Amino acid sequence: GVVDTTPPVVSGCPTAGVPVTAPAGATSAVASWVEPTAVDNSGGTVTVTSSRSPGQSFPLGTTQVTYTFTDPSQNTATCTFAVTVTVFTGQDTEPPVINGC
């Protein structure tokens, strides 16, 4: 048989990072992103594990998030990016955004 030595191909990894602004006085904020995906040349199911998930609360500062994709032959590919939470400082000059109007 053919031995699969090719790792899955990851797409949609937010390598530029995920910036989040917390309200003044906050010590954390909820971060959201579109989760990366992966496909494998074998056509088999790729399993994914991640250190954090969108919608979770992140502390102030930078948190590394890693997704690991594993194909049926145990070849792996990773997507690593930083979620950076900073506190809003300065003047709020933006009007509120109305959704669902």
Summarize, please.
The chain is mainly β and 101 residues long. The chain has strands spanning 9-11, 18-22, 28-30, 37-39, 47-50, 57-59, 61-70, 76-87.
Protein topology:
Elements: E1 9-11, E2 18-22, E3 28-30, E4 37-39, E5 47-50, E6 57-59, E7 61-70, E8 76-87
Features:
two-stranded antiparallel sheet, repeat, about 45% strand, about 100 residues, four-stranded mixed beta sheet, mainly beta, HYR_dom, Immunoglobulin-like, Ig-like_fold, Hyalin-like
- β-strand amount: 35-45%
Can you summarize the main beta sheet?
4 strands, mixed
Approximate helicity band: under 10%
Q: What's the architecture in CATH terms? A: Sandwich
Number of helices: 0
Task: Return the structural class.
Answer: mainly beta
Give a description of the structure.
The protein is an all-beta fold and 101 residues long. It has one domain (9-86): Immunoglobulin-like (Sandwich). It contains no helices and 8 strands. Strands 2-8-7-5 form a 4-stranded mixed sheet, with no helix packed on it. A hairpin with a 5-residue loop joins β7 and β8. The protein is elongated and about 65 Å long. The protein starts with 8 loop residues before the first strand and ends in a 14-residue tail after the last strand. The model has no long low-confidence stretch (mean pLDDT 94).
